[in-house]
Design a protein that fits this description.
mainly alpha, two-stranded antiparallel ribbon, 11 helices, 4 strands
Length: 294
């Protein structure tokens, strides 16, 4: 059997595939962060809480109302997105003319409130969400047995990420969103409801986090703290890709997931810090990020 660094190639390829699954979550979550920061200038520290809220919305819908996985993929992000719009209108809109630090502190406070609410309602222990029957089973890739559900996660994440990039960068709606960031008074003079557009942008960003939460529910235990450690890694991914860069967040998320998977094979002790080491190097060599503008 062919080996690299004394490790069978099949083991390396299998770990890289698992890293791509993690990278899919990184890309989807960092995309939401990049959309909110790039179009609103808000560092959304509540992103991990909305990720957990999406997972709990799917779980609660299944347990209490019989809402299946396929309906939850639509309904949970929609409900969390509407909640995001309400929170933006109530709290964040008052902070746009102030230092960005106030927005970060506000969203950090929102994260604590959401996590505390989920903890009070569902307790501290994690709960499992069943894999839908249509996505049960596994694929034999030759070098590993890949669960069909994890392959589904990769496909959905890539489609949603690049679909969002296309809408923002290549459509009239995306041009309007970017114009709202560059010159809101001028855009409003042309009859565009800029406050509503900004609120919808925040709602869309947190809806992406909720979608990631629904996708992750059958993979990890659903708990109120499920987004805490993940959101720190995702912030690092956004910094590496370039704050506000949509494409940078997508590419960096996918690639860093693979790098993390490869590190688990050759040097497992460093797998938890490799993303932060790369972030430090990027900040030293290119502070704006790999895809960001100076």
């Amino acid at each position: 059997m062919t080996e690299i660094f004394g490790i069978p190639v099949a083991v390396i390829l299998g770990q890289l595939m698992l890293g791509l699954v993690n990278g899919s979550f990184y890309a989807l979550l960092s995309l939401g962060l990049a959309v909110i920061f790039g179009l609103m200038g808000v560092v959304n520290f509540a992103h991990g809480a909305f990720y957990a809220l999406g997972a709990f919305a799917a779980l609660l819908g299944l347990q209490r109302f019989g809402v299946n996985y396929w309906a939850a993929l639509v309904l949970a992000p929609l409900m969390v997105g509407i909640l995001g719009i309400v929170l933006e209108r109530l709290f964040l809109r008052r902070l746009y003319k102030l230092d960005p630090l106030y927005g970060l502190l506000m969203t950090f406070g929102l994260a604590l409130v959401v996590e505390g609410f989920l903890h009070q309602l569902f307790g501290a222990s994690g709960q499992s969400y069943p894999v839908p029957d249509a996505l049960a089973g596994a694929l034999n890739l030759g070098f590993m047995i890949l669960p069909i559900y994890r392959a589904w996660v990769i496909v959905v994440s890539v489609v949603v990420c690049f679909g969002t990039w296309f809408v923002i960068e290549r459509t009239r709606l995306g041009a309007t969103l970017r114009a709202a960031k560059e010159n809101a008074p001028l855009l409003q003079a042309f009859g565009v409801n800029v406050p509503l557009l900004v609120a919808a942008t925040y709602g869309g960003g947190v809806a992406l986090a909720a979608l990631a939460g629904v996708l992750s529910a059958p993979v990890v235990l659903v708990s109120s703290q499920m987004g805490d450690s993940l959101v720190i890694v995702v912030f690092a991914v956004v910094v590496i890709g370039g704050m506000g860069s949509i494409l940078g967040s997508i590419v960096s998320g996918l690639v860093l997931g693979i790098v993390e998977g490869f590190t688990k094979v050759i040097y497992p002790e460093a797998s938890n810090i490799v993303v932060f080491v790369i972030m430090a190097l990027v900040l030293i060599l290119r502070p704006a990020g790999l895809f960001g503008r100076e």
